[in-house]
Design goal:
By secondary structure, the protein is α+β, with helices and mostly antiparallel strands. The chain folds into four domains: about 10-85, Uridine Diphospho-n-acetylenolpyruvylglucosamine Reductase, domain 2 (2-Layer Sandwich); about 90-205, Uridine Diphospho-n-acetylenolpyruvylglucosamine Reductase, domain 3; about 210-320, Alpha-Beta Plaits (2-Layer Sandwich), CATH 3.30.70.2190; about 325-420, Alpha-Beta Plaits, CATH 3.30.70.2740. The chain has helices spanning about 40-55, 110-115, 135-140, 145-150, 185-190, 220-235, 245-255, 280-295, 305-315, 320-325, 340-355, 380-400, 415-420, 425-440, and strands at about 10, 35, 60, 80-85, 90-95, 100-105, 120, 155-160, 170, 195-205, 205, 210-220, 240-245, 270-275, 300, 330, 360-365, 370-375. The strands form four sheets. A seven-stranded antiparallel sheet has the order 15-12-14-13-17-18-16, with helices on both faces. It starts with 10 loop residues before the first strand and ends in a 12-residue tail after the last helix.
């Protein structure tokens, strides 16, 4: 295997394999890894995949490993990991077609920075700016601006993909309309690295609004906050982002960042942003927010620039804070927006039923909730038992409300059993037939999703 790549230093075996590849916060990873390859281009990825296919070796793509459901880790013996981190080149920005072309290992933050001094921007904004575009494509990552601008899927024009056989295909195009055959591009997006390895992406960018304004609404409880979210969405003005979290959740982030949230009142918050090309329209929206909710909210703060930076920094760092201070399990359920309040309320019922702290934050504007189960002082035995009972009840409720198990993190390994339990057998059969057609030997990232 050391001879597959010209530079033998980019093939790691045995003790050369670092903890990056053997430790996950979310699952137990099999440390018996056969090798880690670090290709620099699509040709090398194809060569590695062909070798694995011919020798019946399981292989899994990985990069910065920020995925939250274990989709990038191995649970089998003697797997090969293909680390795309070195494929981190921005190939170009074409202003005529408004596309940015990047390799799969380019980080989300790098794409945002690339457009900083242009009149354009790339809207998808998942919490981890270190996550790669390839990983974002694999999970159809959404983030905080999805309520207005959609998810990664809406900004992918074209993909270069290495199939499980090692063959390389290009799917999608720069054309706006396309019914020329099956939509293979959208099949790959969100498939969590189980149908092919994305190596190059052409992303659509759009003109950036000239003005934006953030605000905070503070409430006594989550029920009042969630009902207000629905009212804001019905005004006819679409927010750029609309986030909800409780006081205890933001306190973890305050401790981690050593920053203070602009509001200290109440126990639940809505943090939102509107943007526009028209300053007068933005002022009108803020006046509407203040007048409509002044009797409902404990406090309304129209944030200045410094307060805005602090508030969104705290929101972005919630997960890092939890990793630092406690053991937790983070969920990623999504429900129809009019059922959002019901779902939040149900988590509080479970909190009492199982005597386990359950916090919530998430993208209130699109129904995506990040429910957090905290271990705190529970013994390992209590934690395992309560966690299973809560997940059993919670996912049952999610599907009864017409929701789904994951909005943007994916199913991966950690949610697979629940996904299979709550998904129609015929749907699973069709997915497995697609997987078999592209990966007949089941070597690419097996035992994930289906």
């Amino acid at each position: 295997m050391k001879t597959i790549l010209k530079d033998k230093k980019r093939v790691l075996i045995g003790e050369e394999i670092s903890e990056k590849y053997t430790f996950s916060y979310y699952m137990n990873v099999n440390k018996n890894i056969k090798a880690v390859f670090m290709p620099e281009n699509t040709k090398e990825v194809s060569k590695i995949v062909k070798y694995c296919n011919e020798n019946n070796i399981v292989f899994i793509p990985i990069a910065t490993a920020t995925g939250a459901v274990g989709g990038q880790y191995g649970i089998d013996d003697n797997v090969v990991l293909i680390d795309l981190s070195l494929m981190n080149n921005v190939i170009g920005f074409d202003e005529e077609s408004l596309t940015v072309t990047v390799e799969a290992g380019v980080s989300l933050g790098k794409v945002h920075e690339l457009l900083d001094n242009t009149p354009y921007f790339y809207p998808p904004d998942p919490g981890s700016k270190e996550s790669t575009i390839g990983g974002n494509v694999a999970t159809n990552a959404g983030g905080m601006r999805a309520v207005k601008y959609g998810t990664t899927r809406h900004y992918v024009k074209e993909l270069e993909v290495v199939l499980p056989t090692g063959e390389v295909i290009t799917v999608g195009s720069l054309n706006i309309k396309d019914v020329s055959g099956y939509n293979l591009k959208d099949l790959i997006i969100g498939s969590e690295g189980t149908l092919g390895i994305v190596t190059k992406i052409k992303l659509k960018v759009i003109p950036e609004p000239k003005y934006h304004q953030s605000f905070i609404l503070a409430f006594d409880n989550l029920n009042e906050a969630t009902s207000t979210v629905l009212k804001i969405l019905k005004t006819g003005y679409v927010p750029t982002a609309l986030e909800l979290f409780d006081r205890k959740t933001i306190e973890y982030s305050e401790e981690f960042t050593k920053a203070s949230f602009p509001s200290t009142k109440g126990s639940a918050y809505v943090l939102g942003t509107f943007d526009s090309q028209n300053k007068e329209m933005l002022d009108e929206i803020m006046n509407l927010i203040e007048s409509n909710y002044k009797t409902k909210a404990l406090e309304i703060i129209i944030l200045n620039e410094e307060e805005e930076k602090t508030a969104w920094k705290l929101r972005d760092n919630i997960l890092y804070a939890l990793m630092e201070f406690t053991v937790y399990d983070m969920l990623d359920e999504v429900v129809p927006i009019h059922k959002f309040a019901d779902m939040i309320s149900y988590t509080k019922d479970l909190e009492k039923k199982y005597n386990t702290t359950i916090l919530n934050f998430g993208h209130a504007g699109d129904g995506n909730i990040h429910t957090l189960l905290l271990k705190e002082k529970q013994t390992d035995e209590e934690w395992i038992k309560n966690r299973k009972n809560i997940l059993d009840d919670l996912y049952e409720k999610v599907y009864k409300l017409g929701g789904l198990i994951s909005a943007e993190h994916g199913v991966g390994y950690t949610k697979r059993d629940y996904f299979l339990k709550h998904t129609n057998d015929i749907n699973i059969h069709v997915m497995r037939q697609i997987k078999k057609a592209l990966d007949p030997k089941n070597l690419l990232n097996p035992n994930k999703v289906i």
